[in-house]
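Field reference: sequence -> structure
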Amino acid sequence: RSERRGQVIGLFALTGFVMLDRPTLIVFLLPFVWRERHFLFGLRELPLKVLLIVVMILPLAGWSFRNHSVTGRWELNSVTQQMLWMGIQEGTEGGGHLPNGDNYLYLLSVPERHAVLALDPPGQSAFFQRKWKAELEARPTLWYTMFAVKLKGFWLFRSHLGMGHDM
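Structure field:
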């Protein structure tokens, strides 16, 4: 409830930390947003609402500053470009593994694998950025096709569900 300020601030702080692991987990807040929509979208208690946004964004901003000091880029992780490339690979259904259990690196040629593993994080990021841009230029609809594949895999069925997780 919005009347319990300490708990609401804690919820938003927890949301910020959860989003560090997976930004899509902002859905963590949806029950609160639905239940307290009159509070959130009204003009009363505006300073509290600004504080809630700041508390939620603080962990993300802190991690971005850390990554900028390490990689020189303002991003949540140093493998953003790698994740973008991996996400448009049809063989992985948008995940990190092929149906046979191999990881996405097996989609690269052997020389590419050796080259990318020898690079530092900014070099790997640039490598994968070139790869995904080239693939999207060759097939502009690939982004939308893979978005649909990922939605299907998330909500309905994925051929290699659980791959990469120990039993």
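Note: The mean pLDDT is 82.
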